[in-house]
Amino acid sequence: FALRIPYVPILYSKEGLTLPYDFSLVFPSSPPLLLSILSSVLTPPSVWIAYLLFAALLASLLCFTLGIATRTSACIASLLYFYYIELSFHQGMTSYIRLFFFLLLLFTFSDAGKTFSYEMWRKHGSIFAWEPGSVLVQRLIALQITATYLGVGWQKSWLPDWQGGEVLYYSFQSMWATPVAWWFVRERFPMWVYDGMVILVTYFEAALPFGLWIRKLRPWFMFGGVLFHLGISLFLAAIWWFYAMIAAYITFFEPEEVYERLQVLGVRYQVVLKAEPRQC
To answer: Is 0.90 surpassed by the pTM of this model?
Structure first.
């Protein structure tokens, strides 16, 4: 988001391209006051207001990352994120936008600030300190990642466009294609190479969520998932957004298992953990 600062006037203010939106057509029976509020909120503002709103979004995301007022910052970020989704030409949400919005909403109710945060440093003198909290949000994130991979893999198994390698052949020549993708196409590989790539992607995406839940197989599937997303972004520049799913792999571990691994790292790097483990 910080990379968009120079483009705030064009993207998010009335100085850029705007599309007139008649809310009375979408909500024909709504009171005039509600229509006026919707029109005011979802109409691009002046440049200085656009900068203020964008600064609030960046500040809330920074506070959330550092663990400062985690729930409050996540709530503000989710509200502003939804605002920008609706403001951006009123477009439908893509899968990664829905994923980001869902995660921000979950963190609004989570105990994520009870470890690796400024809050723990202020209370206990170390970001490695932790307090017991609910794992419900962790489980919900893991279930969402499972559903995302499983749903995408299942769709590819029956969607007509994914029954052959042509979908990749033409995607590697699209506006999202990278120089690597263009090089790959120019090599004129036979179509069975693209067919094999489609089959590999389909079956791996369908198997990945199950592998992440199986403890013995989890490291291998995590490594495969990292290579999978790296490979996608190597050929299609726009899909690097899904790297957030890699970070979410940690939700498949039990909290106690994560703590044990941190203790090993603490011994190796002589990190002193200030808080003793407690039952969650």
So the answer is: no
